[in-house]
Amino acid sequence: MAETILYLLKSKFRDPQYGDQLFFCPQCSPIEGLLAMFPDVRQNLDVRYVDFERPRGDMAEFVGDNQSCPQIVLPKGDDAFSTESSEAGQGAARRIEAPADVQRYLIDRFDLAQPHP
């Protein structure tokens, strides 16, 4: 793994608990909006869309059982922008899972405009 991975749920999914109802992830949508506003960010990440059902693709390889989305996986441990918000993943990987921390990481790492207070 060479790049930072951003895991997001696919934009439409079904939760078997609710039958055929389609859903979107309300925690992932602000991150999707950020990627749409700043397309260069997407080009510098390995964005992986995963199914709602678990296991969620290869996430478990990096994060273990906590497969919440959105989630950032840092390839070689922490970097200067993640030290306060990351926690241990599997092996040498570090991860950021709180949606606000994922957003803050992307804003800081890619020197984006700040959200209005």
Straight-line N-to-C gap: 36 Å
- Low-pLDDT residue spans: none
Strand order of the largest sheet: 4-1-5-7-6
Mean pLDDT, to the nearest integer, reads: 92
Total strand count, please?
Answer: 7
User: How much strand content do the residues show?
Assistant: 15-25%
* Strand and helix order: EEEHHEHEEEH
Total count of domains: 1
Main sheet: strands, sense, barrel: 5 strands, mixed
Percentage of residues in helical conformation: 25-40%
Radius of gyration: 14 Å
Query: Based on CA inertia axes, which overall geometry fits?
Result: globular
Number of helices: 4
Q: Tell me the structural class.
A: alpha+beta
Oligomerization: single chain
Furnish the topology, listing elements before pairings.
Layout (H helix, E strand, L loop, with lengths): L4 E5 L3 E2 L7 E2 L5 H9 L1 H5 L2 E5 L8 H5 L7 E4 L12 E2 L5 E3 L2 H11 L8
Parallel strand pairs: 1-4
Antiparallel strand pairs: 1-5, 2-3, 5-7, 6-7
